[in-house]
Specification:
It is found in: Cell envelope. By secondary structure, the chain is α+β, with helices and mostly antiparallel strands. It is built from ten helices and five strands. It has a three-stranded antiparallel beta sheet, with no helix packed on it. Strands 1-2 form a two-stranded antiparallel sheet.
Length: 249
């Protein structure tokens, strides 16, 4: 409860506060100062049960809760330590398989095994060190020389080479779409036919192969592959407008 109230406090300047205001009952009003904590649709029914009342039924809200916006924070720790509660190892509260042993901003973070973790017996690593390396090329050099065990990202220009060399490159799909955005009030792209012509002229695969140079799929719709619909007939009503299944929209 405290976490969501804190997110909805303007002074917190929380990222993605809309993840709460767009879905939770009276969240926007609480943020605006026109509703109280009692009005907010977030209640602790007991020590282990949290009830969240939504503005309307939202089947995917459970997925939204996985965003860091809703990561639980401990009220006593935050209020006792001010801004440093999340920047110093002594005041950083963790609940995962590791705990923070030391934290040097812009240098590294050292994690140690958390013996209080519920599945600690299956955690084999005793320590993990994360280094801050902002330059991708520098990080890649450290990886290839064996200085570090892994890097989060690599220069796109090195992707094909590393993959061909079986250098341990692992990729995972990103659920998103990269696209060009037009100012539809400006000439000549205020003409839908011009925009359509540009769309047809774009060689998506060439951009993937020669510019992006990473694993990707050409996009022919705004929604990424795998997006599920709710089962409704999305062609319903076409007849009323004289539209065929292949009509332009």
């Amino acid at each position: 409860v405290y976490t969501i109230q804190r997110v909805l406090t303007p002074a917190t300047a929380a990222q993605y506060v809309s993840m709460a205001t767009d879905y939770i009952k009276n969240a926007q009003e609480y943020y605006d100062g026109t509703a109280t904590a009692d009005d907010l649709g977030v209640k602790a029914l007991d020590d282990k049960t949290l009830e969240i009342t939504l503005i309307q039924p939202t089947s995917y809200f459970i997925d939204i809760l996985s965003m860091w916006t809703f990561s639980p924070v401990q009220k006593a720790t935050v209020e006792a330590n001010g801004d440093k509660w999340s920047t110093e190892a002594d005041t950083y509260i963790c609940n995962g398989p590791f705990k923070i042993a030391s934290m040097s901003m812009n240098e590294n973070v050292i994690l140690e095994k958390n013996e209080n973790y519920w599945d600690a017996e299956n955690v084999s690593l005793q320590k993990v060190t994360f280094r801050y390396v902002l330059d991708q090329a520098t990080a890649l050099t450290a990886y290839e020389s064996g200085e570090v065990d892994g890097v989060a990202s690599i220069p796109s220009s090195d992707f094909a080479r590393l993959k061909a060399e079986n250098a341990g490159v692992q990729t995972s799909p990103s659920y998103g779409t990269v696209y060009y955005d037009f100012n539809c009030s400006a000439e000549p792209v205020n003409n839908v036919l011009v925009r359509k012509a540009i769309c047809l002229a774009i060689d998506r695969q060439s951009i993937i192969d020669n510019v992006v140079q990473v694993d990707a799929q050409p996009a022919y719709s705004f929604l990424a592959p795998g997006y599920s619909v709710d089962g409704k007939d999305i062609t319903e009503g076409r007849e009323s407008f004289g539209l065929s299944a292949t009509a332009d929209v």
